[in-house]
Amino acid sequence: VFDLDGTLIDSEERSREAWLHVFQARGLPADEELIRSFVGRRGVDTRDLLLDRLPEHDPAELMAATHVFFHGPDQPPLEPMPGAVHLVRSIAAAGIPLGLVTSAGRRYAEESLVDLGVRELFAVVVTAEDVTVGKPDPEGYRGACRALGVPPAACVVFEDAPAGVAAAQAAGCYCVAVTTSHQAAELTAADRVVPDLTSVTWPLG
Prior knowledge:
41% of the residues lie in helices and 10% in strands. The strands form two sheets. Strands 3-4-5 form a three-stranded parallel β-sheet, covered by helices on one side. Strands 1-2 form a two-stranded parallel ribbon. It is globular, with a radius of gyration of 17 Å. The chain has 205 residues and is of the alpha/beta class. Helix 8 links the parallel strand 3 and strand 4.
C-alpha cells in the first residue's frame, strides 16, 4: 500500500513553496515547522492546525490561496518520485494487490495515478473523503487492508511522513519510509528507512 504525495509523486516541495508564497503575501513569518506539520495530513486537519497557530486568519482562505498556487497554469506537471513507477509495476507483475492511502482528495489522487500511468494497477484507493479520522490515525490503512482482503500484518506500506508512518504502524503494517520530505531521524518509527524507492526491490530484501 502506497502513500501518494512525497512517495509516488514529487509534490511536497511545490506544496512548501505554495505555503511560503501565501504566508509571505500576507506578511506572515515563514513558519517552516508549521508547514512541515501539514505533510501527510488531510485538508480538514491542516485547517485545525492553522486555526490553532494563526487564529486571526481564515484557514479556508489560506488553503484556497495555496491550492491556486499549487495548481497554477504556470506550474509544470508533477513528476514521479525516483523508482516509484518501476516499483509499483514490479509489485503488480508479481501478482501482489496494490492499494493507495492518501490524505489528498479523490479527484487529485485519481488524476495523479492516471498521470503516472499506473491507475489500473491499484485495486483500492482510499482518500481523505473515505475516512472519518486522518493520519496519524490508522483508519485509512486498516480500511485498505480490509478492502484488499489481507491482514495488516501481511501488508507493506510505503510512506514519507511521520504522520503516515505512525498510521501504518498503528494499523499493524510493516512500514518502509523514504526520506524524500523528512530526515531519517524523523522516521525512525518505520521498520525500514531508505533514501527513495530506487533503494527498494520486490520482494523486499
